[in-house]
Amino acid sequence: METDPPFHEFYKSLFNKNMEEKTPQTINKSDKELVIVEECELPLIDLSRLYLSEPERTECKADIARASQEWGFFQVVNHGISPEILEKMRSEQERVFKQPFDRKTKEYRYLNFSAGSYRWGTPSATSLGQLSWSEAFHIPLSDISRSGGFDTLRTTMEHFAATVSDLAQTLAEILGEKMGHKSTFFQESCLPSTCYLRLNRYPPCPLPLEVFGLTPHTDSDFLTILHQDQVGGLQLVKDGRWIAVKPNPEALIINIGDLFQAWSNGVYKSVRHRVIANPLVERFSTAYFFCPSYDTVIESCREPAVYRKFSFREYRQQIHEDVQKLGTKIGLPRFRV
After folding, report:
1. Sequential pLDDT tens for the chain (337 residues)
2. Residue partners of 25: CB distance under 8 A and separation at least 6
3. Where would I find the Fe2OG dioxygenase domain in this sequence (predicted)?
4. CA–CA distance, 35 with 284 (Å, rounded to integer)
5. Cα separation of 266 and 269, whole Å?
6. Which residues lie below 8 Å from residue 133, measured CB to CB, with a gap of 6+?
7. 283 an active-site residue?
8. On the chain, which terminus has fewer CB atoms closer than 10 Å, C or N?
9. How far, in Å, CA of 261 to CA of 258, rounded?
10. Within 10 A of 206 (CB to CB), how many other CB atoms are there?
């Protein structure tokens, strides 16, 4: 039975529209021209330095804050998650995604996940440029402990999530401290019940020049922690141009989300990023989203404030409305003072 989502069938009108709008000249041009994006390595931070002498700890924290300001992205090694768990996570993802598509749409019941956990494509897309050629299980951490089938997937996710949750708290507290705020805000606001795991698969795509694996976006959380395989495809904006992130098998990727940009009054940067579709090879990744409760109020920690106060619920509702009306997220510009 077919395991990939039925992209061609479901989005047939978009494919037809795309062909109708093309001339033979533009078809030949798109076939021949590739967008060349420079590959680079993200700032690499060795977290073992946090457990050394005070000068080493101070320097490590400064490196984390600097990368969050200048890049909005960095990668960490010696992060506390064993290679065995990361490899197990990858193999368990492959196993669950290899289920027949018809079963995956009902898999959340079998796994005791919330309805809507399994997602694919972009239902709101009005053009191929808005279509994400990917599928995912978007899982609240509270769902993991009560999940049913695929016991090894559940235990692997539990182990991964527990360690990554601690890492996210550590990084958030460091970033808060570097802004002059030592508080329990993140411990009180970002709980296991409010954070998420997202298991991603990017199937081979026949139109990699016209369809993204994941469309350009920013993340609507405080922090995202990502483990990706070695296929590559993640790209981000730096100094006004797209750059490709070189995979590092030993590293986790950290990126700043919209909420941290708003909370830091624009000091830490939530950067647009995307995943390029691959015509030949499938890609897997696991993302952890460090989110507060919906009632949490996000307020700039410095004056004059760049962004007005808003709750996470209000932010999510605004994003939903924009996507429904416009086909895309607007995000923080909606909340500028």
Report:
1. 689 999 999 999 998 888 877 654 443 333 323 455 889 999 999 999 999 999 999 999 999 999 999 999 999 999 999 999 999 999 999 998 998 998 888 765 656 677 778 999 998 888 898 999 999 999 999 888 665 556 788 889 999 999 999 999 999 999 999 999 888 899 999 998 899 999 999 999 999 989 999 999 999 999 999 999 999 999 999 999 999 999 999 999 999 999 999 999 999 999 999 999 999 999 999 999 999 999 999 999 999 999 999 999 999 999 999 998 888 899 999 999 9
2. none
3. 193-292
4. 23
5. 6
6. 7, 121, 202, 203, 205, 211, 212, 213, 277
7. yes
8. N
9. 5
10. 13
Per-residue tokens: 317: 């509702």
The b-or-e profile of 301-320 (16+ CB within 10 A means b, else e) is beeeebbeebebeebeebbe
Domain ranges of the chain: 35-303
* Spatial CA neighbour of 136 closest among 8, 218, 226: 226
- The DSSP element (H or E) to which 44 belongs, if any, is strand 44-46
Q: Does domain 35-303 have CATH number 2.60.120.330?
A: yes
Task: Kindly name the residue from 66, 154, 283, 302 that is annotated as catalytic.
Answer: 283
Whether the CB-CB separation of 124 and 186 falls below 8 Å is answered with no
